[in-house]
Amino acid sequence: MATGPDAAAGKPGATARNTEYRIARLQERLVGEELAELGMRIEARGDTIHITGTAPTAEEREAILRLAAEELPDMPVRADIALADATAPDHSEEIS
Amino acid sequence: MIRVAAVGDIHMGRDSRGLFRPAFDTLHDCADLLLLAGDLTHHGKPDEAQIVADEVAGLPVPVVAVLGNHDHHDERPEEVTDILRSAGVTVLEGEGAVFQVGDALVGVAGTKGFGGGFAGRCGSEFGEPEMKSFVRRTRSCADGLRTALEQLEQAGCAFRIALTHFSPVPDTLAGEPLEIYPFLGSYLLAEAMDEAGADLAVHGHAHQGTEHGITSGGIRVRNVAQPVIRRAFAVYHLHEHPQEKGAKVA
């Protein structure tokens, strides 16, 4: 039986739980720090973190990616974060 | 026919000052009024509210807004409201406003709304004080919306629009995780709209949701969260139904 400091890390499920909690921690930081960002979806896909959503500005998208790198430095992050499009619409919808 | 422009969740701060103004300056060509469906700021701070106020000040169409949860975060919603009103924005919470558009009176009833979930999958006024307070808050918003819509009908409005931040229906949440639906809206809002009647319901809040939905009473619902509509605003042309209006009056 394994004993000592390394034993806990080898327990079944420990890695998965850690990833889950670390994603939750990242989401808390996105909400709680200057960003106030509640609209990002952050999910584990195998060994990769996938972030999707729309950021209001390029600066905020960079800040989200920086926080993700800080919180999950050992995991590859794939981000599909669109930028908000503030152009006028080119069509309307008829509602009758 | 009236033309309604609407957007929510513009989340303005220092970095986005002036971002929407070029598009808003086109409103005189395409809309009769602009609805803002809450989450206009990041944190609900006065300086952010001033950025929003500057963004819409002096527009050639009436601007009508409700606040969102972000606009409450700094716990100064009254200050945010005052700053927006000083720029000419009509800010609604449990009340309505009437606008003359051509020959028609257009009424907008607004409330931020709140969460709780949807029929059969929702919270109840039961148990801990915090839980009862949560659901009571939503019910209070819905009651205010119902009363405002009824008053708009009594005022003779040819068109009535319900403006909220939280969603009245689950349809427009499609794309969001099911687990968070109770934090995104409440059926109590839709129930109030269906009981009082409305021609259109507009909301925001659900960034990963879907634009189109409908209440069980047949009111069209549009999620205008900016990440959903992917433009500075959406424009809806509302057409009057003479027969339905006649039947409702009778």
From TrEMBL, chain A:
It comes from the Bacteria. This is BON domain-containing protein. It comes from Streptomyces jeddahensis.
Automatic annotation (TrEMBL), chain B:
InterPro entries: Calcineurin-like_PHP, Metallo-depent_PP-like, Metallophosphoesterase_sf, UCP008292. GO terms for cellular component: membrane. It comes from the Bacteria. Keywords: Hydrolase, Metal-binding. Residues 2-208 form the Calcineurin-like phosphoesterase domain. The keyword Hydrolase applies. One of its GO terms (molecular function) is 3',5'-cyclic-nucleotide phosphodiesterase activity. Its EC number is 3.1.4.17. GO terms for biological process: lipid A biosynthetic process. This is 3',5'-cyclic adenosine monophosphate phosphodiesterase CpdA.
